[in-house]
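Saturday, quiet lab. Running sequence design on the structure tokens for the scaffold JK sent over.
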């Protein structure tokens, strides 16, 4: 995931600034993706259509950097094999420090950190 990501700014309509981030799902963390403290995640899509044989786990840390398999996750989401799995947080999931995230084959809280076999894309709406 650390190889890069795209940011797309959304018009706020008077309710705040939002952005979409598109990440490549790997066990290498994308660190400090919010770039500031007190950010919220409003939605997560885990697109594992090109990863049909195994479930994946999207792990999030309330930190400017994280080490999968070592640092405890702040939040974790299951992405089902071969499909898009969506999560909505209407009031936003708050991250006080920053947001770091990675995609692994191992469940949340597992000490391993292996990248998915197939391609996984992760779409985030942050505000």
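Result came back. Writing it out in full:
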């Amino acid at each position: 995931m650390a190889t890069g990501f795209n940011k797309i700014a959304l018009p706020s309509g008077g309710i705040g600034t939002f952005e979409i981030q598109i990440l490549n799902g790997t066990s290498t963390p994308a660190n400090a993706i919010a770039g500031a403290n007190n950010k919220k995640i409003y939605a997560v899509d885990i697109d594992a259509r090109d990863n049909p044989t195994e479930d994946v786990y999207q792990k999030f840390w309330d930190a400017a950097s994280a080490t999968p398999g070592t640092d405890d996750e702040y939040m974790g989401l299951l992405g089902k094999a071969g499909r898009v799995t969506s999560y909505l947080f209407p009031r936003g999931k708050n991250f006080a420090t920053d947001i770091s995230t990675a995609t692994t084959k191992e469940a949340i809280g597992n000490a391993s950190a292996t990248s998915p076999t197939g391609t996984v894309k992760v779409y985030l709406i942050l505000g």
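Notes for JK: Residues 1-5 have pLDDT under 50 and may be disordered. The first strand starts at residue 5 and ends at 10. Ask whether to fix the surface positions before the next round.
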